[in-house]
Specification:
Layout lengths: L1 H31 L7 E12 L3 E12 L5 E12 L2 E8 L3 E3 L3 E12 H10 L7 E12 L3 E12 L2 H11 L6
Antiparallel strand pairs: 1-2, 2-6, 3-4, 3-5, 3-7, 7-8
Length: 177
């Protein structure tokens, strides 16, 4: 009986050591970039898509490139937007998107800006002749073996006021004379 218990214990130790060795090998590969390469994410476009009674609808389009040989499921995006340094809006988008292996995909994040938030930002414009917006986003990828991997994105751009006025005027209903 003692001999059998010793064999079971030896087998468990061997299995544990082998599993531990495998985890160290995976961690070594991941650390050196051979096992997993972080996807590249950048803001392609931010545009106004509509106006409603609640506020203005925008879309934030991000281009995501997956350098890995397996598809990467995007579990969600957390985002924060600042205008002229002032917090403007924050939220999360939970739509799952699969980024193909060795491929790319566009990820669209819809946001709605409430009019009272927009008024706060408009009040900062006289102090900023060249207003800027900053977008911070954390993309959450569900990576096999590693779990959730966050890829941060930081973009800072100038707001093109003349172009924005033209876009907004195109969205407003025309008045009849």
């Amino acid at each position: 009986m003692a001999n059998r218990a010793q064999k079971v214990l030896a087998t468990r130790r061997s299995t544990f050591a082998l599993a531990l060795l495998g985890l160290f090998a995976l961690a070594g590969c991941a650390g050196s970039g051979h096992f997993f390469a972080r996807p590249k994410v950048h803001l392609a476009e931010a545009s106004v898509t509509g106006l409603s009674r609640q506020g203005a609808d925008l879309i934030l389009d991000f281009d995501v490139t997956n350098p890995n040989r397996v598809r990467l499921p995007l579990g969600g995006v957390d985002y924060r937007v600042r205008v002229n340094g002032e917090r403007f809006l924050a939220g999360s988008e939970g739509n799952r998107v699969d980024i193909p292996a060795h491929g790319a995909a566009r990820v669209t994040v819809p946001v709605t800006i409430r009019y009272d938030d927009l008024v706060k930002v408009l009040k900062t414009l006289p102090d900023h002749p060249r207003p800027v917006y900053e977008i911070e986003a954390d993309f959450r990828f569900d990576v096999p073996v590693l779990g959730t991997v966050r890829v941060p994105v930081r973009e800072r751009r100038e707001i093109p006021l003349p172009e924005l006025k033209l876009r907004l005027s195109a969205l407003l209903p025309r008045r009849s004379p």
